[in-house]
């Protein structure tokens, strides 16, 4: 059994409006049905564009946001349905490192107080003296001087603050640490140090990580398995190397093709897949495959039916109706599968038949162009609707504030 | 090596070691205080306030004459319409009943300070309690908490929408004339201000990552409010408390001036003195000037200190 298992986790934020009592006018589908497994001692990397719901998923695992439905199973216990009191004691086993090192440290607490508060809450250490001893040991482990204890967060550099954040997670001796973009707020020169520190700690303490990042470069070297998120759902999951060697989902391919390759020859030959259009709003996600509005291979079926994540070999799990066809090259960018597939099946047909097929295909392509036009009109419509709903989402947060 | 460069080197070394010693952690409060001490505004405000407080405390004892007794009434009644101005015996002159104005001014400071502080405290304490409840409910209370917060905030909105002087006057009208009435009336007006301010500040802090971090550590909600959210939400409230001492003094004076204050006109209070002076403004403008200037300078002192504190506590200016 895996250490951490998510089963169809959904987090939908209600969009509220109203003068006196708030009325729910819609939802932000921030996380919309994610299932994954994290093995003990491994690192699971989670990547995706900004706004795709990575942070929300991380917080859902820790139950820092309300889980709309689904299960978060840690070592056999479903956290989503756990009563508050038991959840509090489970928190010890599941910790988080935040994206913004300064923002995640209380500016009015000194380091000792920040690090010992969690220990006190879980009854670690009989008294403050014992806790201080332990904190000293952990500070040394994360590379901070022990005179840091009496100092305040604003007196440290960004990298040091993130080390404090890591130490705060470590003092509770957790099994799993969720690192939400742990280095994206740091200087590039310091990023590597912190990533290395995480790596060393994992080796030494046998930690299990979920590392969230918006670019693949950060997670590549430390992840065993990588999951790619798009608009609240997982589109592809594969062992790290395999994902890099052979991305299968169109979205992953596009992400990879955006990363320049140092070798000029390979770089020249590299297939670049440009994503058209903007990321749709999670308040108004596209029907069917969430990616169909931007997918170069999209077919009519993609609009209607939502593809499930399924095994496609090589340890890949992919949510796409047409991975095999794209893989085999049967389906080319911009073609209509209905036109292509029968032609491929009747290889021995005469030239006339082939010509007829070609004509048909051309016709179909024309049809598709028309369709595309209307689709783009639709897209603008729905875009307008999206701006509305994001505005209302902003409203509701503004009201909240 | 010349002695002067040697001396410079030693000094430099001393500087460096001194820096090392002070690296033992400076809390934000302490840093804010350090900034406050170097602010000119704070110093001027502080001096004015200190003078005012000293006057309020020792005034009744050092006043050269009785503030109530009509010691020089014959003199004043003889010169109807001609007021006795400042003279050796009476530094501020006499009022219309032949009382020593300087003594009345000194003793009146205590009443004014009392009204200001008590009404500010009424507003601060009740407002802060409402604000904490609302803020805590909104940040950590889930859906039910947010509903509580909405209701409480709508009530404070209604309170805020009423003109403060009108609200105070109605309270005074209901409760009758007295100094207590003035203090309550002025204090009540401040309640929604403090409540909104603290609640808003708590809400802003409540969505910060360090609160999430505390939650993820498994710390109890009540403790999160007390150790995480509240300490970080207090700065604007402290500033407002200082500023509102100024408004409270002015509003209390206004209510006294309107005749809603202490019904016994012989008890000196700056607002009362101002309202008494009104009738004689043509003949004896100085009678109004003393209490008016007292009120203005004191209010200014509190405002200066409040603004200086706002700057000192602003984390963006940390350095
Ligand atoms: N508390 C909330 N209420 C309403 N909507 C929210 C809330 N938190 C997040 N969202 C929305 O959910 C979506 C996913 O947000 P999330 O922060 O999880 O994305 P992310 O992948 O972490 O992005 P980033 O790379 O910018 O950190 C966004 O559209 C965001 O606006
Ligand atoms: S299901 Fe269709 S739209 Fe979605 S990724 Fe696959 S081909 Fe593209
Ligand atoms: Mg994020």
From TrEMBL, chain A:
<dbReference type="InterPro" id="IPR003593">
    <property type="entry name" value="AAA+_ATPase"/>
</dbReference>
<keyword id="KW-0067">ATP-binding</keyword>
<dbReference type="GO" id="GO:0015833">
    <property type="term" value="P:peptide transport"/>
</dbReference>
<feature type="compositionally biased region" description="Acidic residues">
    <location>
        <begin position="380"/>
        <end position="389"/>
    </location>
</feature>
<keyword id="KW-0813">Transport</keyword>
<protein>
    <submittedName>
        <fullName>Dipeptide ABC transporter ATP-binding protein</fullName>
    </submittedName>
</protein>
<dbReference type="InterPro" id="IPR017871">
    <property type="entry name" value="ABC_transporter-like_CS"/>
</dbReference>
<dbReference type="GO" id="GO:0055085">
    <property type="term" value="P:transmembrane transport"/>
</dbReference>
<dbReference type="Pfam" id="PF08352">
    <property type="entry name" value="oligo_HPY"/>
</dbReference>
<comment type="similarity">
    <text>Belongs to the ABC transporter superfamily.</text>
</comment>
<feature type="region of interest" description="Disordered">
    <location>
        <begin position="364"/>
        <end position="401"/>
    </location>
</feature>
<feature type="domain" description="ABC transporter">
    <location>
        <begin position="4"/>
        <end position="256"/>
    </location>
</feature>
<dbReference type="InterPro" id="IPR027417">
    <property type="entry name" value="P-loop_NTPase"/>
</dbReference>
<feature type="compositionally biased region" description="Basic and acidic residues">
    <location>
        <begin position="365"/>
        <end position="375"/>
    </location>
</feature>
<keyword id="KW-0547">Nucleotide-binding</keyword>
<dbReference type="GO" id="GO:0016887">
    <property type="term" value="F:ATP hydrolysis activity"/>
</dbReference>
<dbReference type="InterPro" id="IPR003439">
    <property type="entry name" value="ABC_transporter-like_ATP-bd"/>
</dbReference>
<dbReference type="Pfam" id="PF00005">
    <property type="entry name" value="ABC_tran"/>
</dbReference>
<dbReference type="InterPro" id="IPR050319">
    <property type="entry name" value="ABC_transp_ATP-bind"/>
</dbReference>
<dbReference type="InterPro" id="IPR013563">
    <property type="entry name" value="Oligopep_ABC_C"/>
</dbReference>
<dbReference type="GO" id="GO:0005524">
    <property type="term" value="F:ATP binding"/>
</dbReference>
UniProtKB/TrEMBL annotation, chain B:
<keyword id="KW-0813">Transport</keyword>
<feature type="transmembrane region" description="Helical">
    <location>
        <begin position="42"/>
        <end position="63"/>
    </location>
</feature>
<dbReference type="GO" id="GO:0005886">
    <property type="term" value="C:plasma membrane"/>
</dbReference>
<keyword id="KW-0472">Membrane</keyword>
<dbReference type="GO" id="GO:0055085">
    <property type="term" value="P:transmembrane transport"/>
</dbReference>
<dbReference type="InterPro" id="IPR000515">
    <property type="entry name" value="MetI-like"/>
</dbReference>
<dbReference type="InterPro" id="IPR025966">
    <property type="entry name" value="OppC_N"/>
</dbReference>
<feature type="transmembrane region" description="Helical">
    <location>
        <begin position="288"/>
        <end position="308"/>
    </location>
</feature>
<dbReference type="Pfam" id="PF12911">
    <property type="entry name" value="OppC_N"/>
</dbReference>
<comment type="similarity">
    <text>Belongs to the binding-protein-dependent transport system permease family.</text>
</comment>
<feature type="domain" description="ABC transmembrane type-1">
    <location>
        <begin position="109"/>
        <end position="306"/>
    </location>
</feature>
<keyword id="KW-1133">Transmembrane helix</keyword>
<feature type="transmembrane region" description="Helical">
    <location>
        <begin position="151"/>
        <end position="173"/>
    </location>
</feature>
<keyword id="KW-1003">Cell membrane</keyword>
<keyword id="KW-0812">Transmembrane</keyword>
<feature type="transmembrane region" description="Helical">
    <location>
        <begin position="113"/>
        <end position="139"/>
    </location>
</feature>
<feature type="transmembrane region" description="Helical">
    <location>
        <begin position="237"/>
        <end position="260"/>
    </location>
</feature>
<dbReference type="InterPro" id="IPR050366">
    <property type="entry name" value="BP-dependent_transpt_permease"/>
</dbReference>
<feature type="transmembrane region" description="Helical">
    <location>
        <begin position="179"/>
        <end position="198"/>
    </location>
</feature>
<dbReference type="Pfam" id="PF00528">
    <property type="entry name" value="BPD_transp_1"/>
</dbReference>
<protein>
    <submittedName>
        <fullName>ABC transporter permease</fullName>
    </submittedName>
</protein>
<dbReference type="InterPro" id="IPR035906">
    <property type="entry name" value="MetI-like_sf"/>
</dbReference>
